[in-house]
């Protein structure tokens, strides 16, 4: 099988962060977080990277990345926008933000014809994740057998507020039984004063075991997922036309595929500690984490 593609979700406006974190500097020579992901992806054997962006970011993104990756990996851009007609939906709906991460993935449907991995631009996943996913996409993936990288929720938290995670139910065989997007996961204090992880639903708190496997939008797909998402999206738009905050999240697509017997999803376990920037206060922690990895020899001081 040929080289897989890396699909990078980079169209978000970063309202909680306060600036365009996709191009913010975190490494000692101005490296972005996604520079480390692409460095790992190149070494793991990925052949192309497709950035999903808003069209108004194109000049900024090209200036930041095109020359840096020239000759190292093929780079393409796809645009997430408000045009529903390209998905066969003949209507216009006024929104302030696009339709979410699964809509973002659909925006790349004409540029990817090979197995591919989806990641967020502002999440640091670590070398182990890319090596394991590349191996899966080269050797095991097919239209009925796909994958997600399963992080432990306790390794994915922010100290500064709530986070969104796809919470997984995993079978004894290591396959995903279901995945549910939880948009309000945070630390709180237990009765003994220790920290515990909870999420809210209908104003009720539910505790999560720190070792619960969660999706960090690190998925391994074949292009078959475009067909499934494209069949689901018109119904989602119709049902949520008046809900301007509704989002078509990636986990809803694999969850639908599993529930309807269309595919299984291997949960590839990793104990790697994720870090990322949801809030501005996260930045110095990310910079310190990267500096530590460089000092340990995991990455060169200057990536490219």
Give keywords.
single chain, 304 residues, alpha/beta, Spore Coat Polysaccharide Biosynthesis Protein SpsA, Chain A, 11-stranded mixed sheet, two-stranded antiparallel ribbon, 27% strand
Task: Give a description of the structure.
The protein has a single domain (5-152, 215-249, 266-295), classed as Alpha-Beta Complex (Spore Coat Polysaccharide Biosynthesis Protein SpsA, Chain A), CATH 3.90.550.10. Helices cover 26% and strands 27% of the residues. It contains seven helices and 13 strands. The protein has helices at 33-44, 58-69, 101-106, 127-139, 224-239, 252-259, 283-295, and strands at 5-9, 48-53, 74-79, 116-120, 123-124, 145-152, 163-170, 176-189, 195-201, 204-208, 213-221, 264-269, 275-276. The strands form two sheets. Strands 1, 2, 3, 4, 6, 7, 8, 9, 10, 11 and 12 form an eleven-stranded mixed beta sheet that branches. Strands 5-13 form a two-stranded antiparallel sheet. Strand 8 (176-189) and strand 9 (195-201) form a beta hairpin. It is globular. The two termini are 28 Å apart. The relative contact order is 0.19.
Look at the structure and give the CATH class.
Answer: Alpha Beta
| Strands, total number | 13
CATH architecture: Alpha-Beta Complex
Shape descriptor: globular
Poorly predicted tracts of residues: 15-19
List the helices and strands and how they pair.
Elements: E1 5-9, H1 33-44, E2 48-53, H2 58-69, E3 74-79, H3 101-106, E4 116-120, E5 123-124, H4 127-139, E6 145-152, E7 163-170, E8 176-189, E9 195-201, E10 204-208, E11 213-221, H5 224-239, H6 252-259, E12 264-269, E13 275-276, H7 283-295
Parallel strand pairs: 1-2, 1-4, 2-3, 6-12
Antiparallel strand pairs: 4-11, 5-13, 6-11, 7-8, 7-11, 8-9, 9-10
